[in-house]
Structures
1.
Amino acid sequence: MQRRDKWNATSGVSRRGVLRLVGGATACGLTGGSLRSAFAQAAPHTMKLGDAEVFVISDGTMSMPLSFALPATDAKDVSALLATGRPPLTAFKAEVNVVVVKAPGALIVIDCGGTSDFMPTLGSFPDRLERAGIKPDDVTHVIFTHAHADHLWGVIDPLDDDTRFSKARHVMTAAERDYWLQPDLVDKVPDAVKGMAVGTGRRLKALEKRIEAVKPDAEIIAGVALIATPGHTPGHVAVRLHFGGASLIVGGDVLVNPVVSFQRPEWAWGADIDRDQGARTRRKLLDQLASERTHLLGYHLPWPGIGHVERKDTAYRFVPS
Ligand SMILES: [Zn+2]
């Protein structure tokens, strides 16, 4: 019953929220300054985008084993790129930056975070959304970049196995919905993602009547349009926000790591369902971001995930704002 926690009157942080934060930070091996920055992320990051306001709300952090993230790359090459020295890197840390847009006449949530049963360090988004003064019933649109656990599972309220956002349109590409609703999907995917296939399939079934299946280049409302970015999943999209002459691209999982995804976009990314297509999509989006100089908001990039892309040698680099 996360939404019914009593907030501590002095700090504004619920006791359950604090316990989850400390537990999550410890599980990730965060201490000292990192722990302080994790506490800072209990509050949203906000920015103006023309006549809209963008909130970034942390759902928590994830740890991605290197052997899973980069299955075809020698760990020595990764360490050399990241200049980590010793001990060798064994896992990437990834933020989970949920985006909420207060636009004229609309309140849009882009992806919903994960749940603590998927990863114990996730699941803070619902509490933090309400702490930011945003009521779930006021949300008009929920847009999913894709249906992986850390993006979709947080939409479900476990109290009634239905959405937390009962008045919102729930938007996903038809390709994404159809992929995860295949009845025999669990038999087709590798062992490592069978749990994801079952968990996402069950939640999408619960949401099926609410899902509005769209094309991957659909305009959802004026100023909010999808960009087809397949590869990570078959129906993956990025979201272009454009308000009052200002633009921001919410990149989903096209660009996950602040070094590897930008400086070695051709390296096969283990979480991409189609790794060749994922690499082509990465290049294409990087080229677009660098050419347009549009700001990027990365779901898994270092908090709050905002920056721009510059060309560097034969690839690119991420410049945080
Ligand atoms: Zn993700």
Note: Confidence is low (pLDDT under 50) at residues 1-33.
2.
Amino acid sequence: MKNIFLPIQYIAYLFKARGAHGIHSPFVYELYHKVVKDKTEFYDFAPIEHLRERLHHSKEVIEVVDFGAVGNSKYNKKVKDIAKRSAIPAKEGRLLFRLVNFMQPRNMVEMGTSLGISTLYQHKACPEANMITMEGSPGTSSYAGVNFRIMKADSINRVVGDFKETLPEVIKSLPLIDYVFFDGNHRKEATMEYFHKFLPLVSDRCVFVFDDIRWSTDMYEAWKEIIEESSATVTVDLFSFGLVFFNPTQVKQHFVLRY
Ligand SMILES: C[S@@+](CC[C@H](N)C(=O)[O-])C[C@H]1O[C@@H](n2cnc3c(N)ncnc32)[C@H](O)[C@@H]1O
């Protein structure tokens, strides 16, 4: 995240963020202890971080499609640079692992595979779930596929292509959705479009995770709109992640939690 509003945003977040004492919802209290604050060193963490370390030292170069550029231009990029710039940090990967472990979803989708670091954290927490990870850059997705084989995670389904084309097919293939990680296109319009496309599929146990909700003022506006959605019940602001739960038995309430 690189924007000049971040330091101000962070101070505002720290003022609002609550620890365990301010949480009166039993569900959120449990989420806070088991997902946000838990320090367990799960068995799968070390191999994923070992893979990241190897990627950081890779000498390979792959062809990448840049979806931020006009005309989705292609260019060659060092694997180590992609790993350093795009992959989720270990602290956040671990949080995703604990969240998936806590929610035990059946159908999971990730928008934005890159080299597959976040995919692995989520998949390893619930390997029996149907995990679909979507990536527009074919070279990047293939490289992630190799990483999945190395990590014995062959059951992950990779979908390759621009979200514009692949998302309708993915949605059609799913009966219901229990988990979506939005980490592909951090623009308000696109984020809102993807959010609304998944909404009709959400199960009662579903959670949506939005990465980089403060990446830009535009993205923060999207997050503000998302928490107003009537079918979203509990929503949680963890500064860079935004979590949205849809359990209709829960009271609609927004939490800003210290992470
Ligand atoms: C931040 S990276 C994902 C990082 C990954 N989740 C991780 O933490 O390891 C975002 C990825 O989304 C892909 N992406 C961005 N816009 C896209 C689009 N419109 N269609 C398909 N893929 C897209 C990019 O190619 C990039 O690899």
Note: The domain at 6-42+89-256 is CATH 3.40.50.150 (Rossmann fold).
3.
Amino acid sequence: MNYGCPNNQCKFYQKSSQVIKNGHFKRKSDSRYIQKFKCKHCLKQFSKATFTLEKYQKKRRINLKVLEAISSGVSMRRLAKHLRVDKKTIKRKVDYLAKKVEPKNSRFLTKLTRDKVTHMQFDDLITTHHTKLKPLSVSIAVDANRRFILGAKVSTIAAFGHLSKISKRKYGYRKSDHKQALNELFFQIRSCVAKDALVRSDEHMNYPAVVKRHLPLVTHQRFKGGRACIAGQGELKKLSNDPLFCINHTCAMFRANINRLIRKTWCTTKDPSMLQKHIDIFIYYFNQIYLKDVRT
Ligand SMILES: [Zn+2]
């Protein structure tokens, strides 16, 4: 692999013609020998690590552990305790992992455009931003035949039921961007759904418009949600043949494996953008690590 000069003031910026090898160093954080380079023109020194997302990281050894643990129901604070690092380190690791998995997730979707989804199911999962007075919604779409999670988007919604009055009094008017999130989700995944696919959902009023807009030729079937059974965190239903089983099961997987989504818990989301990052990391883990293990 050729490395170009990283100095943007240099005449040979991003060109490898003037770059020569310049020894190596032993990286303390993971005991690896790293090749160093030098640009002959501007004398700038750099190494293989300069071009990676992990640049300047001091705790590389825990990256994989963090990925696996936060996708397996461990909270960020408990993980910090467990790995003997600060909770801020875990927060930074989540930021880093979210950046790391983003191209991997989009590559996965690109792969699916060649092998399209013929049966899609989608639904919303309700969670809270610190308190039940500030609910959040996670719109999730799955491939019902192969269990892949196609995407998930977090949005704010207004409090409902008897909490709506209290919420308004305490926090003021709460804008709902649920429709926008649904549109973003469908825009992201529409190229991997077959034109004549079967799409199933429940009877939420925002769904028909978004399906019609992004996937006009598909067959959209809507079902009434059943009563929850005890297992599956209220997501699995008490029906003998649940037509929305795949999406309900995936939602139950979300609740069981993303600590902040567990019902009746102390661990809640304090920042919706972190929830989105956590979900993106989980989607990568589920599609590309967990399902592979299940299949083989
Ligand atoms: Zn240079």
Note: The first strand starts at residue 19 and ends at 27.
